[in-house]
Amino acid sequence: MRIAAYHRYGAPEVVGVEERERPEPGPGEVRVRVQAASVGAADAAGRSGSPWFARLAFGLRRPRNPVLGSDFAGVVDAVGPGVTHFAAGDRVFGATGAEGGAHAEAVVVGEDGAIVPLPDDVSVEAAVAICDGAMTALPFLRDAGRVGRGSRVLVNGASGAVGSAAVQLAAHLGAEVTAVCGPAHVDLVAGLGAARVVDYTREDPMRAGAPGAPFDVVFDAVGKATYRRARAVLAPDGRYLTTVPSWTILAQQLTTRLGRRRAIVRFTGLRSAEAKRPDLEHLAALAAAGEFAPLVERVLPLDDVAGAHRLVDTGHKAGTVVVTPAPEYQEA
C-alpha cells in the first residue's frame, strides 16, 4: 500500500509517498481503508519538529514514527479475531492520536479506540474536518470555558479548522459570539453564526470597550493573542483559552488558578478514547442534522501531501486541509 512518510524534520518536501506492506488487524483490531485524512497544525509541527514541544511528542532527534496523520475516515475492509462492533463494509471515522499512521491507504486501530460509525449523510471529508477542528473546539468551550446559554465568547482565528468549529459550536451552545479573522474570510465567517465579525486588520478586538466585551471566554484558537491582551476584554471571572502551549501560558495557568480570571491551555488530543467516542458521535449527529458544517479548505491526493503541508504552513487556510489516500473504496 502507499503511505506518506518522512524520515527527518524539515520543510514540506521531506514528506513523500512510499510503498509499505499492508498491515493486518490483530485480535480486537479493525483495518480501515482510508478515504480521507486531515493534514493539520499538529502534522505540520511533527513534520518540522517545531515549536519546541513538538519533538517531545514526535521524537527528539528524528521522527519516531515516519507516518503522520491522526484523523481518518473510510471503510472497514478487514477485522481481527474477537471484533464485535464493526464489520467489513462499515463506514467509520476517528483518530489514532499520538500514534499517527493515517496518511496511508490503510490504518489498523483497536475497536475500543477513538473510532465510531460514520452517518451516511456525512462525507468522509467532513468527518476528518470534525476530528481536526471540532474535537478540539468542543472540549475547550464546553469543559474548560463552561460555555452555555447567554455566554459571551470571542473566538480569535475564526476561519481556521478549530476556530470555525468553535464559532458554530459556541453559537449552538447558546453563546453570543464575536469572531475574529482576516479580511479574506469575513464573509465566510459571517455565515457561521457569529453575532459580529471583526477584521483584525481594521480593528483591535481586544481593546478596552471593544464591541461585545466583556467576554466570559476568549478562545484563542490559533495562539496569536496572549492572556495579558485578553484581560482588557475579559469579564471579572472570564477565561482565556489557548490551543498553543508556551512556557508563559503554562505559568499563567498555574498563577491564575487562585484568581477569578483564568488562563487555560488544554491538550485535547491526549484525551482517552472513552472520552473521545461520545464527542465523535455527537458531532457527527450534529453534522448529519445540518446543525454543524465542518469547513474544508481543500482536498488533495496523497501524491500532493507536500502541497497540503505547504498550505497548512501558510497559516491562512479556512477550515481543514484533506488528503485522499484511497479516494474510492476497493477490495484489498
Automatic annotation (TrEMBL):
Residues 10-323 form the Enoyl reductase (ER) domain. InterPro entries: ADH-like_N (IPR013154), ER (IPR020843), GroES-like_sf (IPR011032), NAD(P)-bd_dom_sf (IPR036291), YIM1/Zinc_Alcohol_DH_Fams (IPR050700). This is NAD(P)-dependent alcohol dehydrogenase. SUPFAM superfamilies: GroES-like (SSF50129), NAD(P)-binding Rossmann-fold domains (SSF51735).
